[in-house]
Amino acid sequence: MIDESRCAFKNYTDLITSGMKATDPIRLGLALSSATFLYEILNDRATACVLAKQAFDDALAELDSLDEDFYKDATLLMQLLRDNLTLWTSDADDVDEEEMILLCRHVCADNKADLHTIEEFETDYDACSAIFRHTRDTFLYRLLSDALREQDVKTLFDEIFY
Predict the structure, then answer these.
(1) Which residues contact 4 (CB under 8 A, 6 or more apart)?
(2) CB count in 10 Å sphere of residue 43
(3) What is the DSSP letter of 1?
(4) pLDDT, tens digit, for every residue of 67-106?
(5) 83: in domain
(6) What is the residue range of 119's domain?
(7) CATH number of the domain encompassing residue 36
(8) Which domain of life is it from (predicted)?
(9) Considering only Cβ atoms within 10 Å of each terminal Cβ, which end of the chain, N or C, has fewer?
(10) pLDDT in tens, 103-138
């Protein structure tokens, strides 16, 4: 059922995007539905965000040439796309932080001092202390130094939000 739904969304999206303006409410509604399906049902958050952002940006670029008949519907759907993007990207930040802390706990499982520092980091972290935390000789400093030295892009990417 899910694969059939994914295929149907793709077919409709291909059909509509080839023949409708980016500001058409039907096209925007399909983009909103498709992105929500990807995010909520398939758990494909990255693709959902890309699809929603592309639909929003395409419509925004054509907003000046929008027919008055469609203006209210199009802007409402654009607002829903933007609201979802805001919600989804803030959810991603929370997930990223949790994943980073779990990774650090795993890496430092045998070191009580580092585990204490992780707990301190988890409860007391704020942006003003970022440089202090990144340069202090702790698990995070060693983790980032090793990733840079080994050119471990995945670890660098996982930690980049800090």
Answers:
(1) none
(2) 8
(3) -
(4) 788 888 999 999 999 999 888 887 555 556 676 777 777 7
(5) yes
(6) 108-159
(7) 1.20.190.20
(8) Eukaryota
(9) N
(10) 777 777 888 888 888 888 777 766 676 666 666 777
